[in-house]
Each structure stands twice: as C-alpha cells, then as structure tokens.
Q: What sequence folds into this?
C-alpha cells in the first residue's frame, strides 16, 4: 500500500522567512503533484513533477523531486500572508499514466505578519 | 471556459436518506474521479471511471455507488448516509497519455448529514 507522508503537519512562520515542506512516499513513482487548498475550497494545482531531478518554480514557491530518495520538497521563499493555506503532495499510485493519486497528510501553513 | 462543475455546492441530507451528488465536465476528459475529504484530512479516492470502466477502491464502502451515463457527467450516490459520511466530495478529471497532466478538480460539494 502506497503511503505518502508530509512534514511538518503544521507550520507557522513569519513573513519574509524561508522554509521547506517535505513529502516522502513509500513506493516507486515518477509522478508527483503539489496542490494548494484554502479553507472550505477545492484543490488548486501548483506543480506537476514528472522525472527525477525535476524542479519547477512559480513565484515564491519551488518544488523538486528526487525519485531515488522518494522525496519531494516544496520550498517557500520570503513568505507572504497570501501563501497561508494547506499544501498537499500527491503521488500517482498507478504509475502508468492513470493519474490515480494518493494524497499526503497535508501541511497547514500559517504566515504571521 | 472549460471546467469541472459540481452541484450543489452545499448539500444537507438526513441520516439514512439517499443522496446524489453530480459532476459535469466540459474538458472531454476520459477519466473522472470521486474523492472524499473529511475535515482536516487528505482527500481519499473512492472510485474512478476510465471511459465507461468503473474502478472501485478496495476500501470504499458499499454504501457509495457511482454512475457515468456519458463522458460529461458522473454521479455519486450515497444509499444510506451516516453521520460519518459528512465530508467534502471532490470530483476530478484527467486525460491520461498527455504527458502526466494534472487532475482538474471541481469546486466540491460539502455534504452535511443530520
């Protein structure tokens, strides 16, 4: 059974600081996704990482994938209040293009002014 | 704009009273998914359709059923809702074979069971 774990589960950080969220998964996969969710809302796609060593950046967020270590990171640079949300990583369990995702536990990020 | 639409946004039902949630898409994607997300938890896949082929997750209760009458529509039926079925239900679509594209999620239906 595929397990996807994130840490930390809760993160409170000051504006302007940098931090990293970690996503570990238990089985071979070369497809990893990051989503953002605001309270009471649906999931917003942030990044799709499709190969070992993949790195993608959008604004203050940067995601990377190490398939050998079964690890993905989401790095936040100079955090701003608008980034407060819950962040989920998700792994394609089927791993043959069916995008059957298993989600991580989520990291609830709070940016403090 | 092409999108995934879920109705209603909020649904209240009574304990044991059947309820149906709907999802439609204009993306012409051949895969449609239903996820259940309970408060402060990760979304959990209930089942998905690959075209007309239904794929049930092993731990999805029999109380949950799904129908996909055509490419555009997919329904989630909860035959006898219990208090533990109160959750956000998320519909998503994808088109495999296009380079690992992301899932497109609808806005969700928040189900309350009284």
A:
């Amino acid at each position: 059974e595929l397990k996807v774990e994130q840490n930390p589960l809760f993160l409170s950080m000051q504006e302007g600081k940098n931090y990293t969220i970690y996503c570990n998964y238990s089985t071979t996969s070369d497809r990893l996704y990051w989503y953002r969710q605001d309270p009471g809302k649906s999931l917003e796609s942030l990044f799709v990482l499709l190969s070992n060593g993949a790195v993608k950046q959008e604004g203050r967020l940067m995601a990377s994938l190490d398939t050998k270590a079964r690890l993905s990171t989401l790095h936040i640079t100079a955090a701003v209040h608008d980034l407060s949300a819950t962040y989920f990583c998700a792994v394609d369990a089927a791993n043959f293009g069916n995008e059957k995702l298993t989600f991580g536990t989520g990291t609830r990020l709070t940016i403090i002014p | 704009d092409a999108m995934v639409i879920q109705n209603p946004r909020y649904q209240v039902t009574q304990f044991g009273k059947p309820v149906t949630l709907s999802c439609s898409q204009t993306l012409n994607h051949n895969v449609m998914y239903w996820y259940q997300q309970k408060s402060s938890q990760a979304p959990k896949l209930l089942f998905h359709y690959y075209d007309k082929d239904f794929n049930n997750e092993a731990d999805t209760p029999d109380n949950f059923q799904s129908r996909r009458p055509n490419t555009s529509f997919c329904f989630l039926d909860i035959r006898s809702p219990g208090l533990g079925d109160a959750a956000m239900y998320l519909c998503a679509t994808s088109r495999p074979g296009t380079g690992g594209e992301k899932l497109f999620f609808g806005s969700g239906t928040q189900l309350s069971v009284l």
Notes: Chain A has a mean pLDDT of 90.
